[in-house]
Write a sequence for this structure.
């Protein structure tokens, strides 16, 4: 399996990293506005609708700012722990896939993560 990691931005104004494999694309955090996330993805030739999942590390705004609008616009699967999901006002049943610390989660056919 080939794994390509692209940092879309990191700092107090926002954080996002794209993981790409042969079978999927996953954002780790979505800390920029929805439009800014779309622009950053466009710069590297990635269609936002091709993102399979967003994995949120925690609820701070510089990691989650664009998650709600990105999910709404593109139908992207959202993964977060229960606390992050609840603090952001997401419905943990219909809008989030809940994970626990040190629980392996399969996010694409060829990529699992251990948050």
């Amino acid at each position: 399996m080939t794994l390509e990691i692209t940092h879309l931005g990191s700092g107090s104004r926002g954080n996002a990293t794209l993981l790409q494999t042969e079978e999927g694309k996953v954002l780790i955090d979505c800390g920029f506005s929805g439009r800014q996330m779309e622009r950053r993805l466009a710069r590297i030739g990635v269609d936002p609708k091709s993102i399979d999942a967003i994995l949120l590390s925690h609820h701070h705004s510089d990691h989650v700012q664009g998650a709600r609008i990105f999910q709404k616009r593109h139908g992207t699967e959202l993964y977060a722990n229960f606390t992050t999901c609840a603090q952001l006002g997401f419905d943990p049943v219909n809008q989030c896939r809940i994970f626990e610390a040190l629980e392996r989660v399969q996010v694409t056919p060829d990529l699992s993560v251990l948050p």
User: Anything to note?
Assistant: The chain has a mean pLDDT of 94.
